[in-house]
């Protein structure tokens, strides 16, 4: 009976010894990655940026179309909180006069990120100046 119990204890010890060193290293790296991810999430929850949305608008490009012109707009949220339904007004200006207005909306703008959209004009925006204004947002 002692021989069979002796064989069982040897089997348990040899099972841990059968695991290759590469698997232990890979497991250690996996544990390290999970610990780092949890640390980042905990830091963001406790000490993350809580500033309100700060929307910066820029004109990316202007393209002629068959039925008018497309002005591509980029919105960057430089704040720490997200913004939903960010409404943007675009004015086509020439000599301090508003020639045409257009609007677009960004459905969701996460913190410290950017999104692209477009506004349409019937007049050529390259002949004047396009002014962009963020008009409002909702808290998601």
Summarize, please.
With 140 residues, the chain is α+β, with helices and mostly antiparallel strands. It contains 2 helices and 6 strands, in the order ααββββββ.
Core attributes:
single chain, 140 residues, alpha+beta, Immunoglobulin-like, 2 domains, three-stranded antiparallel β-sheet, 2 helices, 6 strands, elongated
Written overview of the protein:
The strands form two sheets. A three-stranded antiparallel sheet has the order 1-2-5, with no helix packed on it. Strands 4-3-6 form a three-stranded antiparallel sheet, with no helix packed on it. A hairpin with a 2-residue loop joins strand 1 and strand 2. With 140 residues, the chain is of the alpha+beta class. 31% of the residues lie in helices and 46% in strands. It starts with a helix and ends with a strand. The longest helix is centred in the N-terminal third of the chain and has 27 residues. It has two domains: 46 residues; 84 residues, Lipoprotein YajI-like (Immunoglobulin-like, Sandwich), CATH 2.60.40.1620. 14% of the residues are buried.
């Amino acid at each position: 009976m002692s021989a069979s119990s002796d064989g069982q204890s040897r089997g348990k010890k040899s099972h841990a010894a059968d695991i290759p060193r590469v698997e232990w290293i890979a497991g250690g790296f996996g544990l390290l990655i999970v610990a780092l991810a949890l640390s980042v999430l905990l830091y963001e929850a406790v000490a993350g940026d809580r500033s309100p949305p700060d929307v910066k608008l820029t004109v990316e490009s202007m393209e002629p179309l068959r039925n008018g012109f497309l002005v591509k707009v980029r919105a960057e949220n430089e704040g720490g909180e997200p913004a939903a339904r960010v409404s943007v007004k675009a004015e086509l200006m020439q000599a301090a006069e508003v020639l045409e207005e257009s609007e677009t909306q960004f459905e969701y703008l996460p913190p410290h990120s950017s999104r692209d959209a477009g506004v349409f004009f019937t007049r050529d925006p390259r002949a004047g100046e396009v002014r962009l204004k963020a008009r409002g947002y909702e808290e998601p």
